[in-house]
Amino acid sequence: MTPDNEVRFRGCLDDVAAYKPGRPPARTDGRPTYKLSSNENPYPPLPGVLAAATEAAGQMNRYPDMGAVDLLEALSARFGVPTSDLAVATGSVALLYHLLQASCTDGDEVVYAWRSFEAYPIAVQLTGATSVQVPLTDDARHDFKAMEAALTERTKAVLVCTPNNPTGPVVRRDELLAFLDVVPSNVLVVIDEAYREFVREPEIVDGIDVYRDRPNVVVLRTFSKAYGLAGFRVGYAVAHPPVVAAIRKCALPFGVSHVAQAAAIASLAVEEELLERVEALVTERTRMVGELRAAGWDVPETHANFVWMPLGDDTVAFAEAVQAEGVSVRPFPGDGARVSIGEREANDLFLSVARAWRQ
Ligand code: PMP
């Protein structure tokens, strides 16, 4: 019980476990360390992107353009959607928070697969709503039959993460479209495509095609992963104007800085070069998965910039063993570890520990 002379917070905060960021391991022996724990892009921003951000930094005495007009226009031209169907925010995680804040309150339910992105339960709890977590199938995929069965009168939103963080599989076209057909039109469906650009599976449907004739669908994407701008914090949502309007009402004023807007616009201008880097990461991903499987690891298919290592009770010990070699990964105790695809030497170091672990 909180004593009367202490500040009281909303009851829903009691169960909120704060988001834990990954950190690079600290070494004192002078050998390099690598962070493979946050699904970041190992490549630094391209010179043109840095130049645009640096120039924008000269305006930092002013508030940024709250409407992010130039960025919305650049996104509109890139994806062939009207600016009225676009919103940007401080990373796609902010868009998720805004959407749930706008749509959910005490007593409501939000359905999503589990395990999935660790921010989902936090974002739901902050609204006072209840998470309804539907276990993934044995091969780490969404179980849409079970998700359909989990829908109730109280369901306000459904979150679909594809590719799924942290396990990697992607939702196929047929299963997504069939699921959308059974979700009531007054339930918001968030398709979280943070890793969209890393997908090489032909049997998927693009969220931006899906939303066009579905007013309850919102697609979330980000500049943090494929575009390598995680530190700038820019994500975007694509949805029909009422959904966009709801996001805008909840958004923090001036949340996306001048430098972030400029960097995102500049990235779209050099997208081809950035996507070559994505291709190199996809090649590394194929190598990682191949080598892990050859070493006896049962890793699920992955279409993102990470690999899931099902470790069960060995998860923490494994993460510590990798950490001791200077590589941080993301452990989910009792379940598994997620390893980002990083620079080749980081991947090699990780693979050497993973191989030794199986021997
Ligand atoms: N969605 C998923 C599935 C993610 O994994 C992440 C980042 N880890 C995000 C959204 C948020 O990305 P950001 O806020 O950097 O755009």
What's the topology here?
Blueprint: E1 34-35, H1 47-57, H2 69-79, E2 86-89, H3 92-103, E3 109-114, H4 119-127, E4 130-135, H5 144-150, E5 155-161, H6 173-182, E6 188-192, H7 207-210, E7 217-222, E8 235-238, H8 241-250, H9 258-269, H10 271-294, E9 306-310, H11 315-324, E10 327-328, E11 330-332, E12 336-340, H12 344-358
Parallel strand pairs: 1-10, 3-4, 3-5, 5-6, 6-7
Antiparallel strand pairs: 2-8, 7-8, 9-12, 11-12
Helix pairs in contact: 1-9, 2-9, 3-4, 3-8, 10-12
Bound molecules: 4'-deoxy-4'-aminopyridoxal-5'-phosphate.
Explain how this protein is built:
This protein is an alpha/beta fold. It has 2 domains: 25-45 and 270-357, Aspartate Aminotransferase, domain 1; 58-268, Aspartate Aminotransferase, domain 2 (3-Layer(aba) Sandwich), CATH 3.40.640. The chain is 38% helix and 15% strand. It is built from 12 helices and 12 strands. The strands form 3 sheets. A 7-stranded mixed sheet has the order 2-8-7-6-5-3-4, sandwiched between helices. Strands 9-12-11 form a 3-stranded antiparallel sheet, covered by helices on one side. Helix 7 links the parallel strand 6 (188-192) and strand 7 (217-222). The chain starts with 33 loop residues before the first strand and ends with a helix. The mean pLDDT is 95.
